[in-house]
Design brief:
Blueprint lengths: L5 H13 L2 E2 H7 L7 H13 L3 E6 L2 E6 L3 H16 L4 H10 L5 H17 L1
Antiparallel strand pairs: 1-3, 2-3
Helix pairs in contact: 1-3, 2-3
């Protein structure tokens, strides 16, 4: 899965949160000073080229919609980070979180309980 720039992710958030949109609707959602219609239209086309959006035609205008869910993107991004920065080891990720004190022992126990419950359902 391709990565999104910060601006592309900002545009995608509208689709993930609110569903299909016309470019005009997207522009209206921005605070003043609003981005130019052509700018948002370019982002929509780029997102479509990257495989995140598709469109349906309504006369001469397009209504875009997400074809990648936020969860799919989040999971793909997480896998990419684990592969790139932690030698594809989720154990290294957890170890790093523990060392940096970003996760407590109680949270680890809760995580282990969830994993055990998940395994027992299989």
């Amino acid at each position: 899965m391709k990565e999104l720039t910060a601006k592309e992710e900002e545009v995608m958030r509208f689709f993930w949160d609110e569903g299909p949109q016309f470019v005009k609707q997207l522009v209206e959602k921005y605070p003043d000073p609003k981005p130019h219609f052509n700018t948002i239209s370019t982002y929509a086309r780029m997102l479509e080229e990257k495989g995140f959006l598709s469109h349906e035609a309504f006369g001469s205008t397009y209504r875009y919609f997400a074809i990648i869910s936020e969860e799919e993107y989040r999971n793909g991004t997480l896998r990419s980070v684990v592969k790139k920065y932690f030698d594809n080891s989720y154990l290294s990720v957890v170890s790093s979180l523990i060392k940096e004190q970003d996760i407590s022992v109680e949270e680890i126990r809760k995580l282990l309980d969830e994993v055990e419950q998940s395994d027992s359902k299989k």
